[in-house]
Amino acid sequence: MQVLDKLQVERERGITVKVQSASMFYSYKGKNYLLNLIDTPGHVDFSYKVSRSLASCQGTILLVDAVQGIQAQKIANFYLAFSQDLKIVPVLNKVDFPGAEHEKVEEQMRNAFDLDENHILRISAKSGLNVKKVLQTVIDDIPAPTGDIKLPFKSLLFDSWYDTYAGVICLISVGDGNIKKGDTIVSAHTGEKYQVNQVGIMYPEMKKTNAL
């Protein structure tokens, strides 16, 4: 099921053209974790959106197609993540597809990204093969966000859009403090003040929460 590909063009062509986020709860080694995931476009025309999204993350999943191999923009996005000192989890997808050349593509990944082949996860998102291993590796290898809830609220806005009924909807990464309905926030860029009418998470659709 294409949960994050919501636009018609994304579903028809199997590509991502708009940043989408989703939160999920995952139990691992007796603990419950909240994972906040961002799906970013891979095309060069959307590199700004990728850069903004990476700035709000602690790590990234480097997803490579075992049929198509490494695309040019994949290399550019890798170095964007690398330059921000993000933990990178290399994943090779579609290993069960006809025409998949996982050994050849893994060699490309080793040469292009200087990766240890033992760290490359072979998966099939379609069948679910090793998908749990990806989530477990994310928890094991990518550090949790840092921040102080006692400090004034601070966040990074990485995407927004206008909804006819709800108004402006913002996707944010909370750095410090917390935010709840009724709060007044200030844009660090413009100095404009805004009132918060609702907060929540994408689960994967909008789900109200008391605070973030």
UniProtKB/TrEMBL annotation:
GO process annotations (BP): positive regulation of translation; translation
Single GO cellular component term: mitochondrion
InterPro entries, A to Z: EF-4, G_TR_CS, P-loop_NTPase, Small_GTP-bd, T_Tr_GTP-bd_dom, Transl_B-barrel_sf
Residue intervals of the Tr-type G domain: 1-146
Transmembrane segments: none
Pfam families with a match to the protein in the record: GTP_EFTU
Keywords for this protein: Membrane, Protein biosynthesis
Gene3D superfamilies: P-loop containing nucleotide triphosphate hydrolases (3.40.50.300), Translation factors (2.40.30.10)
GO MF entries: GTP binding; GTPase activity; mitochondrial ribosome binding
PANTHER family tied to this protein: TRANSLATION FACTOR GUF1, MITOCHONDRIAL, TRANSLATION FACTOR GUF1-RELATED
Descriptive protein name: Translation factor guf1, mitochondrial
Organism name: Smittium culicis
